[in-house]
Amino acid sequence: MGHLLNRINAPNDIKKISPRSYPALAAEIRAFLINNVSKTGGHLASNLGVVEITMALHICLTLPEDKIIFDVGHQSYVHKMLTGRRKDFPTLRKKDGLCGFPKRSESDCDCFGTGHSSTSLSAALGFATARDLRGTNEVIAAVIGDGALSGGMAYEALNNLAKMRVNRKNLIIILNDNKMSIAENVGGMSGYLSDLRSRQSYTEFKQNVETTLNNIPKVGKNMAKTLKRSKDSIKSLFVPGMLFEDMGITYYGPVNGHDLNAMIQAIERAKHHKGPILIHAITRKGKGYEIAEKHPEKFHGLGPFDVKTGDCLASGQAKTYTDAFSESLLELAAEDERIVAITAAMPAGTGLHPFKTKYPERFFDVGIAEEHAVTFSGAMAASGMRPVFAVYSSFLQRGYDQILHDVCLQDLPVFFAVDRSGLVGADGETHQGIFDISYLSNIPNLTLMAPKDDLELKEMMRFGLQLPGPVAMKYPRGKVYTGLHDHREPIRLGKSELICKGQHAVILAVGNIIEECAAAVTALKEEGVRAGLVNVRFLKPFDEDLILNLAEEYPLIVTVEENQLTGGFGQNLSAFLHKQKADVRLLSLGIPDCYVKHATVKEQRMMYGIDSSSICQSISRELDRIREENSHE
């Protein structure tokens, strides 16, 4: 490790570094990032791209008094290093270790927790407004990428920003423009920024003209003031359609985001500006690591890798549920030309790249705009198409109102392919897909399914795309489970699949958690407990007839799900059994009322008692209670 980085062990220590040493420090930071992320995994390319921007902010601002809000937050590694957390990087994204996103409980320098896109401008405006109400003077700075600027929430904030009374004091927006979010950006904002990049620096030209006018004796200053007030000002003459300035936000740039001196100069000027100002910084994702520069999408988020080759160290290329979805969609699209695919800036992560390549005219990337994607899909369905919106579970939350009103209320046949459902591991609280059963199962008209493996996923897709109304199919991140491939009951609406019968208890497994449940059934048998196993398949409508039969046959029904218990399948089943006055004990296992911190999925299952060993223990304890209660009667 370089000697300069060793000198930064607390917030603001970077101010002790000589400006002559800044380039060397930037090089040390990049080397540190590459070396550490190669061991732990994480978000690399985005952090390599913001080294100079983050250094400049820490040089110009004083933390934690001043505030830096990172949009999305996966690019906050350099910020964490410069605020005294460098020594914690070996624990990055590990259980009880350093979080991969800003986290208020982790440091006073993380003023606002993030994880999803397009939130920074709203948060920055909130901080600035509170500051002005208090009458204090801290600097508020938001760092937002050009991809995040495609999100609707960012436009809402820009609109509000132009109207709020922040003009009394500054608010700095740094637009980190690397032409990408996770994939390459699309849409009008992307084209607009591309146009700005190609122009000569309007800011420098404006300043030169104003300086020249101010130097003209007697009349120069008045001419400069008149010019600034004029609707036909310099920016209107030389930079037509200056969106930000037309909204009342001063535009500065473009600036080379890897020129540290230029960034420091821009931020220092912005600190003394009255009102909101946007610094347009042009950066390169993966800067300083040639392999990441060539393949920024691959190095957005990845596991441990070989630094020399860039190859991931994970053994083998196991088939994932996303792969199964991708294959099935291609097969079905070949049979039905009405099928179209929609993504919200995640074509690779959701497995839609093969579809995009084969059917480009039927593929639509709407940018980071989940709300728009849902309504867009609904309208296509109303026009006779069969839209498939592939989206991560935690991102679909952002389109909840549109799911409820624009799709399900109208009973439109949109197919929601809900990827990364359940526990996702190292990305932490903001990315766990543990709420989808709760927020989807209470919506009328929606059919909600969860396959146990890759073969069932494909069958469910075919079945779901033939239904006349909206369908959601939830499936997890990671490799497919193949242990029950021999069990292939036909898919029927609202019907579960009985895997095996038992005597003392029956386990109702939701989706891929059946892997743990099947292992628990085997382990319980060795202890003399015969447990049945049911693959739930349909969470809405669920198999009421089977449930009532199981209630008569078994003294104990156990539900297991990778979902929050509140509003989950177990709670829905409990309400049903109560209404039917069923005389059966119900034990529901799942995620309690909390947010799940980063760890491996295996560790997370153990933490919340839904691994095979914990399931066995819970069932044994419950059966002991039942026997004890019966003995007292």
Q: Beta-strand level of the residues, as a percent range?
A: 5-15%
The number of distinct structural domains comes to: 3
What is the CATH architecture assignment of the largest domain?
Answer: 3-Layer(aba) Sandwich
The CATH homologous superfamily of the largest domain is called Thiamin diphosphate (ThDP)-binding fold, Pyr/PP domains
**Which class of secondary structure composition applies to the elements?**
alpha/beta
SS summary, helix count: 25
Helix content: 40-55%
Unreliable stretches (pLDDT < 50, length at least 5) are 229-241
Radius of gyration: 28 Å
Distance from first to last alpha carbon: 70 Å
User: What is the average of the pLDDT values?
Assistant: 90
Query: Tell me about the biggest sheet?
Result: 7 strands, mixed
Q: What gross morphology would you assign?
A: globular
Do you know the CATH topology of the largest domain? Rossmann fold
Strand order of the largest sheet: 7-6-8-9-11-10-15
**Number of strand segments:** 17
Highest-level CATH class of the largest domain: Alpha Beta
Describe it for me?
40% of the residues lie in helices and 14% in strands. The protein is an alpha/beta fold and 633 residues long. It has three domains: 60-70 and 99-199 and 239-290, Thiamin diphosphate (ThDP)-binding fold, Pyr/PP domains (Rossmann fold, 3-Layer(aba) Sandwich), CATH 3.40.50; 321-474, Thiamin diphosphate (ThDP)-binding fold, Pyr/PP domains (Rossmann fold); 497-631, Rossmann fold (3-Layer(aba) Sandwich), CATH 3.40.50. The strands form three sheets. It has a seven-stranded mixed beta sheet with strand order 7-6-8-9-11-10-15, sandwiched between helices. It has a five-stranded parallel beta sheet with strand order 1-2-3-5-4, sandwiched between helices. α6 (152-163) links the parallel β2 (140-145) and β3 (171-177). α3 (51-60) packs across α12 (260-271) and α14 (321-335) packs parallel to α20 (454-464). The model is unreliable at 229-241 (pLDDT under 50).
